[in-house]
Each structure stands twice: as structure tokens, then as C-alpha cells.
Amino acid sequence: MPGPPSLPHLLTARLPFFYGWVILGAVCCAGFSRAGGGVAILSIFVAPMTDHFGWSRTAISGAASVGGLLAALASPRLGRLLDRAGARLILSVAVLTTGLACMALSLTQSLAVFYLLYCVIRMNFAGPFDLGIYGAVNNWFVVRRTTANAIATTAQMVGLVILPLIAQAAIVWFGSWRAGWIAVGIAVFAVGFLPSVMLVVRAPEDLGLRPDGQAPQPLQERHFTRPQALRTRAFWLLALFTVFSYPVQAGVSLHQAAYLVERGLSPTVAATIVGAFSLASGCGSLGFGFLPRRLPIRYMLGAVGALQAVGVLGLLAATTTPAFYLAAAVFGLGIGGLLMLPPVAWADYFGRRSFGAIRGVALTFQVLAQAAGPLLSGVLRDATGTYVLSLECFAILSVLAMIAALFARPPVAAAPMSVA
User: Could you tell me which of 185, 191, 188 has the C-alpha nearest to residue 105?
Assistant: First the structure.
């Protein structure tokens, strides 16, 4: 891919502030668009589409799982591409194909067509969007990394708040779930495409800059190659945290609207609870992002596992609408931390130089875990007639994730390098 586009060069020479903040703004737009592939969006369509076509919950959940499997296969190669070419190409293609596929879902007439289109959406969500967004942020920020990651993740949560409401409003207004998919697709493309194409640059060094602009203090950054990272205990403990925590995130998120309706809430109230969950996720991302950098990140990851466990148990125990809102909010706080903190941990523990290659391997564990969650929830629901058993399983996995995180100490630096 050729060098950075001319617009960033022009802006860098004229802006009174660090161009990394422009990168962050563009990445936030892409993050909003990424929400189009979130399981929280699909959860709005689970009930109307299964009612319309007569599909089982297992069948519709399987599309998210298959999309995750495709992302798992693609992520290691995409990670190497990210290190070489940067996030611009990856994010631009992801936004474009996600928007088009969402709109095309309005034409779905069969389960096969649904799988074909939604697998593209989910593959983009789990692979290219994750690598592109956090690869860009972690390349441009080191000292301010947690804050920048928190802002980028919050933008995704804003998408997860707004897009379900857009989808539900279109469904109610036009009387068809097909209109909901068109509305989501238009929003995805309108917000995310042009900023990704015109503003994103691989790294500050490509514009003659340094991470964070003028960093307020020196910082020794680790630089591991992918083979070096794979030989560390920290890599595998972080991977284990991922394997335990992400089935919970994806499994609960996809089926929460259907679960709430089964517990006696109206579809509209269920949609607002999904929105409250996403809003709390944004608050969780910001809250974790502004914690002091000196606080070990493994403790923050442990807190994420604890919040997930408490939120899931709350959903099981709730009997009133306010209790459901509270449980969803607690769970959302944990998910906000889960979506923001692991990319920071990978970058802090192993450095920027091979972030894409290392994160690409780690993302394989993440998307496989995310693929397992919705499928597990759908299978257990179809087998038992309720979501109770799957939620109990997710509570146990959350506790195991907390334990793995607390043991994930940073690796010994392979090649420290000052970025001051």
C-alpha cells in the first residue's frame, strides 16, 4: 500500500495539536460503524426473524459463530498486514462491506443467504475492525494509551446504544424487520467510511511524529516479536482470560433481548435495556481508561471478570424491570472494560512493533471464544426451553476469567526502548 494520503500531511502542518487525536476521531467513527456487527444489534432481530422464518435460536446463533470462525482463520494474516500497511485499508474495507451486507440482509429469503451475509458482518466485527481500531490507537499512543483506548471503545458503545434503537425504530415505523437492517447499514456506511479512507495513517513516524506527540515523561516500551511473545507465560494467561471471558460477552449479548422478552418484558422495553447495557459499557470503558496507569492492568482485568459474574447472576435473579436494568448495567460495566483493556494489555506487555502479528494470534482465541458463546446459549436454550443453564455456565466462566487475569504478570522485557 502506498504512503499516507496527502490530507494527513496537510493537516499535520496546520493543526495546533497532535495529529493522533485526529486518528482517534477517525477510529471512533469506525468504532461506531463496527457496532453494526455486534451481537447486541443481532439480538434485536432474533425474535422477529425466527418468528418470520420459523428458524431455531440455535440456527440464527450459528451465523455469529461461523462468522467468528472465519475471523479466527483470517486474523493472524490480517495482523501481519496491519504491521506492514496500517489500519487505513483494513478499516475502510470493513466499513464498506459491513454497511453493504447489513442493507443486503433486508432481502434475506433463506437461512443460507442470512448466513452468507451475516458471516461477512460478523467476520469484520471480530477481526478487521478489532485489529484496525486498536492497532491504530496503540501505534499512536503509549503514555496516553489507556485513555485513547477508552475513548475508542466508548465510541463503539455509543454505536451499540444508538444502532439497536435505530433498528427497533425502523422496525416499528415500517412494520418490518427488513427496514431495520437497511437503517443499520446506512448508518454504518455514513459514519465510518470517509474518515477511515481519508484520515487514518499507520503510525506517527510516517508523518515525522512520535507517539503521544510530546510525551509528558519518558516511557520504556517493550518490543517482542511474535515468537518471543508466544514463549512467555503472560501470553498464555492473557489468552486464557480471553477464552473464559469472551463466550460470556457474546453469549449474553446476543440472547439478552430474547431472554428479557421470555421473562415477560415487552420488546420495546427489552430494546431499551439493551441500550442501557451498551451505555453502561461505554461508562465502563471510560472508567477503566481513566484509572491511573500505575495500577497493574491484571487487576483491572480481574475486576472485569468479577463484574461479568455479578451481572450474569443479577440477570438470573431479577424479577422486576428496575432489577433487570441494574443487572444489565453491572454486566455492561464489565463488558466495557473487557472490550477496552485486552488491547492495552497486549500492547503494554509486548510493544508496538509486532502488535498486529501478536494481536492477530491472540484474536484467534478471542473470536473462537466469542463464536462459542452464542452457540452454547442457543443450544442450551433449545434443549431446556430457557436460558437459565447457559447463564449459570457464563457465571462460572466469568469467575475463571478473573482468576486467570490476576495471575497474568507482565513478561520480562525483550528489548526495552524509550519513546520519550
Answer: 185
